Each structure stands twice: as structure tokens, then as C-alpha cells.
Amino acid sequence: MKSIREIYKVGKGPSSSHTMGPECAAQLFKDAHPEADGFRVILYGSLSKTGVGHGTDRVIRQVLAPLPTEIIFSPESIDGCHPNTMDFIAIQGDKETATLRVESIGGGDIRVPGQSHLDSPEVYPENSFAEIADFCKWRYIETLSDYVELNEGEEIWDFLLDIWQVMKQSIQDGLAATGTLPGGLKVQRKAKFLYEQKSDDMPPAMVEFQKIGAYAYAVAEQNADNGTIVTAPTCGACGVLPAVLKYAQDTKGFSDLQIARALAAAGIIGSLTKRNASISGAEAGCQAEIGTACSMAAAALAELYNQNMDQVEYAAEVAMEHHLGLTCDPICGLVQIPCIERNAVAAMRAMNACNLSYFLTGSRNISYDMVCRAMHETGINLNHRFRETSEGGLAKVYHRKK
Asked: Under DSSP, is residue 24 helix (H, G, I), strand (E, B) or coil?
């Protein structure tokens, strides 16, 4: 399994697979072909159908500038390839001099078929939660965060502390911003409004939701506005984990280092899901993005509250289990409706999953490895209309307001 650094990437929204991945691919191809005097890029599958709303064409042109770039939105899907596939073509004069096929596999990562040397190294020998749990019992390791330090070294804490600072900044920036999000849907920013609501009659549970919801909205709205966020595990699901951790720090006084340890546990869940299933909405629906984010957040909370490893696993499992089948149907191909609201709902569900794990872990029948496999099977069998193509669900039935 790869480093948890692969899960947490600092970048600009709105989509890790549609903007961050293609940006990386375009830079790779540009650097390899300085002789070109122009480029042609063909986008397939989900990249073609929601690329305009996600800004795929914009970011590719920015990277390949100042050379002219033709973007072709192909109606085809390439058999045997990820739904987010693109072909780069270098042009010199009137001739095509080089081509490269790249898959944007989610979370900002890319894969080049046949070029395994570009893959990042494996860091963890274990590739399932069961293997991790067995190893930790054998070595008397009690927490996932200690397991992370054993494999990644003490320097991982500096990395995670930096990640936490970016997460907190994205909340702060989102809470301070007002106005309308770009893209034409005229979606108003709501984080600041939600955060500032005051009432002496609000019960504690509603105050909790207000704060967590405002934090999740803040980060998700920053993402939708092309702001700087941290993938956790993707741009579209970036608000869930920082929202619950910021609320926990606010109310319980956890140190930044304690939060970093929670991020380490969450990173293991994200890495396992990415390896054994998917974190790509185009491949497996929103269950792969929001479902994974919710599992990461639930595990992080369980780690933060000193629950044992079985409880951490159960929290992650409950969170994923109740997102199975969740479709990815962004209206107009924008990461706004239902994506922003979904971050807030998933953050609250992560809190609930952690609470259930505290009481009921001993009675569970399903492991995280099982629910991860179930999510993947469910995702690949979803109709393509519900996998980030904006051709079904809410995206199909929505009628633009006059």
C-alpha cells in the first residue's frame, strides 16, 4: 500500500480527477515534448461529459500555454481504461509527433498504461485492514497512528501538521466569503450565514450540526470556487474530514499533534479504499468519494477519542456501509449540487458512526474489508449515468430556474 501522502494533496478545486489529474498529465506531456509547436487533447468518458463544468479544458490549456491546444470532447469511452481517460498528441508543423494516453484515477493521481516506472513506491507491506490489525497485534501496536509512524517515519507528523494548517485555512477562508459560486447555477455561499446563526433556544445537537455543517460548507464552497483545499480523499469530498476535526478541536481542546494522529488513521482508511476499491466518482459513484471521506472522518474521530483498533475499524465500516449505492450526478457537471450539501451531511454521519462504534463494536458482523469490496462491486455495476456523467439522477431531472 502506498503512502498516506497520496491521499492528502494540497491543490485548487473543483475536482481532483478532472482538474488536478489532467493538470499533472498535461505538465508531464509538455515537459516530455519541448519540440512541439501545438497540442491536441482528446477527453473521453466522464472527462468529456463533465469536463467543461469541472474546468478540465481550462486547466489543460493553462498548462500547455502559450502553445495552441485543441480540446476534443469525445463521446466515446475506452474499453479497459478508467472512465477518466485522455489522449495527448504533440503536433509539429502539420504532423503528429507523439501521443500519450493517461488515466486520471481519482484524488489527483494519474496512471500511464505501460509505464509502471511512474508509479509511486509501496510504503506499507499490509494491504487490508485485517492484515494491518494482525500485524499490530503481533507487534503490540495499539493505534493506527503508531502504525503509520512505524512505516512512514517521524517526518510524517510535519507533513500532517502542514496538511492540518491548510485544512483550517480553507475553513477560515470559506467562513469569511460571501457571494455566488461560478458556473451559472447561481448557488449562493451559505457557510458564513450558517455559522453566524444565533438562538438561545437551539438545543446542543442543533448547535453541533450548525458548526460542523458550516465548516463542511466552508471547505466545499472554497473547492467549488477554485480555492485551495486538501483532497480527503478527493476535492469533491474535501469538507468532511476537516469539519469534524475542527469541531472536535474547538470543543475538546485537542492539540494540533493529536489532530495529526487522527489524520494518520484517516489516511490509512483512505489508502486502503483507494487500493482495494476506488475513490473516483467516475469509476464507482459518489460512494467512492463521500463514502470514503465519511469513513476517514469516522476513523479519525475514533482514533482521537482513544477508541481501540476494532472500534476504529467499526466506525469506518458503519460510515461506508450507509453510503453504498450513492450516485454521482452533479448538476450541470459542477461540484456544487448536491456535492456541497453532501459534505455537511456526511460529516454528521461520521460523528454518528463514531458514536455507534463506541457502544456496539463487539456485536458487529461486517469488516471494513468486506464493505470496501461491496462498495467497489456496487460502483462498477452502477449505470454509467450515475458515475459523474451528469446524464442521470438529479442532473437529469433538474430544470434551471428562470
From this structure: helix
